[in-house]
């Protein structure tokens, strides 16, 4: 289980390291500015990820509710059919 946490963290650190190195060498940005830019990008990615997860959960919840309504309607129609 810990390996599942270590791999994304290691990948993120490598991405940050190489992105910071690229910002420093290519655009002559200070170290502080490079770190702040990368933190801003990480915050935006995290925010969009959370919004995406919330939308997926909302859509799944709506689909489940619709399925429950369909099942209830089907059971009601079967009861009415049996009465007739």
Tell me about this structure.
It is built from 2 helices and no strands. With 84 residues, the chain is mainly alpha-helical. It is rod-shaped. The chain has one domain. Helix 1 crosses helix 2 (31-83). Helix content is 94%, strand content 0%. The protein has helices spanning 2-27, 31-83. The protein starts with a helix and ends with a helix.
* Structure classification: mainly alpha
Helix content: over 70%
How would you sum up the major sheet? none
Q: Strand-residue fraction? A: under 5%
Q: Give me the number of helical elements.
A: 2
**Could you give the order of the helices and strands?**
HH
Separation, N- and C-terminal Cα atoms: 58 Å
Give the low-confidence spans: none
Number of domains: 1
Radius of gyration: 25 Å
Shape: rod-shaped
Tell me the total number of β-strands: 0
Mean of the pLDDT scores?
76
In short:
Keywords: Membrane, Transmembrane, Transmembrane helix. This protein is mainly alpha-helical and 84 residues long. The protein is 94% helix and 0% strand.
Map the helices and strands:
Layout: H1 2-27, H2 31-83
Task: Jot down its keywords.
single chain; 84 residues; mainly alpha; membrane; transmembrane; transmembrane helix
């Amino acid at each position: 289980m810990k390996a599942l946490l270590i791999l994304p963290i290691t990948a993120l650190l490598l991405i940050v390291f190489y992105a910071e190195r690229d910002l420093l060498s290519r655009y002559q940005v200070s170290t502080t500015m490079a770190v702040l830019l990368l933190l801003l990008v990480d915050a935006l990615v995290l925010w969009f990820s959370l919004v995406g997860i919330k939308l997926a959960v909302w859509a799944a919840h709506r689909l489940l509710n619709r399925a429950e309504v369909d099942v209830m309607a089907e059971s009601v129609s079967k009861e009415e059919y049996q009465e007739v």
